[in-house]
Amino acid sequence: MAAGLMGDHGRGMAPNQDAHRWFVAAAVAGVAHALPSLYWALGGTALVSTLGGWAADWQRKAPMQVLVLLLVIFAVKLAGAFVPLANERGRLPAPRLWRGLSWAGAGVLVAYGAVNVVAALAALTGVVAAGPTMDTAALVGHAFLWDPLFLVWGLLLATGLWRSRYQKTGGRDRAHLVAAAPSAR
After folding, report:
1. Minimal CA–CA distance to 68: which of 30, 38, 46?
2. Distance from CA of residue 121 to its chain's centroid?
3. What backbone torsions phi and psi does residue 175 show, to the nearest 5 degrees?
């Protein structure tokens, strides 16, 4: 079987290029979210205020703890960016496990991003009282940068997962990609 037809976990089916584009876009969003964590871990301070005043204070008071935590966050975000893509290309063992974890991750990203965007916008617009110590820079960061990026990342990943879903055909256990190329059916 031609090497180009081996993208579906080695079963000889044509890869779903449409779904692959969504996985790549999700990976790009994940890397975009991960890189600031690495930057801050290495001592960078730009945009730290968009996380909240507590972040800058903690970075000054406990730099080693912040370094370790941010490196872990960076690694988790990178894994979240690349594991679904690698799994979609058939490069991981136990693909159903990774696919299930990817669905869970997409759900968490979408829910976390959406809830925090709405909450930050509600506080910024006065729909809910934010209190006298409202951190405007942090609310702006969460409303317009960090949490929308979580939301977009989750939506892109969920779309890739949906576009690459399998269906049973003819009552048999043979799986086919829903949007696979016609020659693979």
Report:
1. 38
2. 22
3. -95, 140
pLDDT for the residue numbered 111: 98
**Residue for token digits 């949490």?**
147
Q: Return the closest-CA partner of residue 58 out of 47, 69, 72.
A: 69
Distance of CA 44 to the CA centre of its chain: 23
Once rounded to an integer, what is the mean pLDDT over residues 59-65? 92
Q: What is the pLDDT of residues 14-29, one digit of tens each?
A: 458 899 999 999 999 9
Q: Which long-range contacts (CB under 8 A, 24 or more apart) does 7-14 make?
A: 7/89, 7/90, 8/90, 8/177, 8/180, 9/90, 9/95, 10/90, 11/175, 13/176, 13/177, 13/180, 13/184, 14/177, 14/180, 14/181, 14/183, 14/184
Give pLDDT tens digits for 132-168: 888 999 999 999 999 999 999 999 999 999 999 864 3
Q: Rounded to whole angstroms, how far apart are CA atoms 22 and 127?
A: 35
Cα–Cα distance between 56 and 66 in angstroms, integer?
A: 10
Model pLDDT, residue 53 = 87
CA distances from 148 to 9, 12, 142, 172 (A): 32, 38, 7, 42
